[in-house]
Design brief:
5-stranded mixed beta sheet
C-alpha cells in the first residue's frame, strides 16, 4: 500500500513543458499545430507507465513522456517490476483550438437587366472550435456594378471596396450582410468576397475564406435566325435571350404557307426544336409584356437546319 500511495503521488503531478499556464492547473488550451508535452514528475526507471486518453489505454505509450497533438482528457498510471499498478492519475485536459472562418456570397435569384437593383447576401460563419474576434470581410465590386447600399453600419464602401468589420463570432455563429447593387451593362458579373481574422489562430480550411458569385445581367431581346437541332448541344433549340425579363410572353411559329406549326402555352420556355418539321425557313411572332405592363412584339424569320 505504501508503494501504491507513493506512485500515486508521483504520477498525480503532471507537468506541461510546452504550453501556456491556465487558471486550472489540470487544463491546457493551446493553438493547433503546437504539440503539448505531458511528463510524469520525477519518473523512476524501475517503473513502466501507461497513458490513457478518454479512459482508454493508448497503445505503445508506455514512457514517462507523452507528446499530445489531439484534444482529449489524459491520465497515466505507473507499473512496478512486480506488475503492480498504481491508481490512475487525475485527468489532465488538453484542448487544441483553431480558426475556421467561412464566407459565402450569393446573389439574388431574380432576373435583372441593366440599371435594375438586386441584392448580394454575404454570410460570415465561425466553423472553428473557438470564438473568433476582429474579423474583416472584404468585397471588391467590379466596375460593371453600381453600389447602392448595405444594411449594416459596420460595413462601409470606399473606392470600390466593401469592408465589413465583425467584432466577434462565437463557435457556430453566423452573420449576414445584404448589399444592394445595379448592373451597368448586360453580361456576366463575377466577384469574390473574402474573410480573415486579425487573431493569431491558424485557419484549418483556407479554401472557404473566399466565395465567388456569378450574376447575369440580362440584355435586350435577341432571337437567333438559325437553329440546328442535330444533338450537338449547340443551337439545338430556339433560345430567346432576355425573355426572362418579361412577366408575360408567347411565341407563335408559322411555315411558308402561313400555317401555325408551334405556339407556346404560357411563357415560352426556350424549348422549340422544330420537332417533326422539315428544314426550311419559318416565321415567328413574339409577343411580350414587360414588368411595367407595357406590351410589345417582335417578328422575324428562323431557318431550320438539321445537318449542320
Amino acid at each position: 500500500m505504501v508503494l501504491r500511495r507513493l506512485i500515486y503521488v508521483v504520477v498525480l503531478l503532471l507537468q506541461v513543458l510546452i504550453a501556456n499556464a491556465q487558471q486550472n492547473p489540470n487544463e491546457m488550451v493551446v493553438k493547433s499545430g503546437a504539440p503539448v508535452t505531458l511528463r510524469v514528475n520525477n519518473p523512476d526507471g524501475n517503473f513502466t507507465y501507461q497513458w490513457y486518453r478518454a479512459g482508454r489505454a493508448m497503445p505503445g505509450e508506455t514512457r514517462p513522456v507523452l507528446i499530445v497533438t489531439v484534444t482529449g482528457e489524459y491520465q497515466v498510471l505507473a507499473i512496478n517490476q512486480g506488475n503492480c499498478a498504481s491508481d490512475l492519475s487525475d485527468v489532465f485536459s488538453v484542448r487544441f483550438i483553431n480558426s475556421d472562418l467561412q464566407v459565402v456570397k450569393k446573389s439574388e435569384a431574380k432576373h435583372v437587366g441593366p440599371n435594375e437593383t438586386f441584392e448580394y447576401y454575404i454570410t460570415a460563419r465561425n466553423n472553428g472550435n473557438s470564438d473568433n474576434r476582429d474579423i474583416v470581410v472584404t468585397d471588391r465590386l467590379p466596375t460593371t456594378l453600381r453600389f447602392m447600399g448595405v444594411d449594416r453600419s459596420a460595413a462601409v464602401y470606399e473606392e470600390g471596396v466593401i469592408t465589413w468589420n465583425i467584432p466577434s463570432l462565437a463557435v457556430g455563429q453566423e452573420e449576414m450582410l445584404t448589399v444592394k447593387v445595379q448592373g451597368k451593362v448586360e453580361g456576366y458579373v463575377v466577384n469574390t468576397a473574402s474573410i480573415q481574422s486579425n487573431g493569431d489562430l491558424p485557419d484549418l480550411v483556407p479554401e472557404n475564406n473566399t466565395s465567388t458569385d456569378t450574376k447575369r445581367i440580362i440584355g435586350n431581346i435577341k432571337v437567333p435566325n438559325v437553329i440546328t437541332p442535330n444533338g450537338d448541344g449547340k443551337n439545338d433549340v430556339l433560345k430567346v435571350d432576355g425573355i426572362e425579363l418579361y412577366k408575360e410572353n408567347t411565341i407563335a411559329i408559322f411555315n411558308r404557307w402561313g400555317n401555325e406549326v408551334f405556339r407556346s402555352q404560357g411563357g415560352y420556355q426556350n424549348n422549340w426544336d422544330g420537332n417533326g418539321l422539315s428544314e426550311g425557313t419559318y416565321f415567328y411572332v413574339l409577343k411580350l409584356v414587360s414588368r411595367d405592363g407595357v406590351s410589345s412584339s417582335k417578328t422575324g424569320y428562323i431557318t431550320l437546319l438539321r445537318d449542320k
